[in-house]
Amino acid sequence: MEKKHNDFYIKLRAQISAFLEKKNFKHSDILLMGPDFFHLLVKLSLDPRVPTEKKVKLGAAVAYFISPIDLLPEAFLGPIGYMDDIAVAAYVLNDYINTGDIDILYEHWAGEGDILAGIQNVLTIADKYLGQGLWQTIKNNFQQTGSPE
Q1: pTM of the model
Q2: Residue 28 domain-assigned?
Q3: pLDDT in tens, the chain (149 residues)
Q4: 114 domain residue, yes or no
Q5: Would 149 be classed as within a structural domain?
Q6: Rounded Cα gap, residues 140 and 123, in angstroms
Q7: Total structural domains in the chain?
Q8: Whole-angstrom distance, CA of residue 126 vs CA of residue 45
Q9: Is 97 part of any domain?
């Protein structure tokens, strides 16, 4: 999984960077967090200190990132299609923060800036731009993943 993770991470970072060089996208800071969120999800899901029930949600978020079939498909929308993937990652990471070891989160964070502020920023933007019904559907699906909440 580690090689596949690195390949996807590098491809994602290159895709987003190329897109942002050509476009003036309002939420470029959020798009740039995508590869770092993906990296963090993978690292946490592989860490033996993370409880299994959390790994299920983390793994589901990784699968959502990789899957070509999601609510905002990258094949049609380009890098902007990663916005729902990034929102899902932020939602799952926020859940991890609320019930997990934050030190492990910081240990694996390879991005720039504060991870907690980044997660909150993404969740705020998702609430505003994904549409209440769509965003609630996504959150409900991930609430049910891994543990009965």
Answers
A1: 0.76
A2: yes
A3: 455 556 777 777 777 777 766 766 666 678 888 889 999 999 999 999 999 989 999 999 999 888 877 766 665 666 667 788 899 999 999 989 888 788 999 999 988 889 999 999 998 888 777 666 666 767 777 766 654 33
A4: yes
A5: no
A6: 15
A7: 1
A8: 23
A9: yes
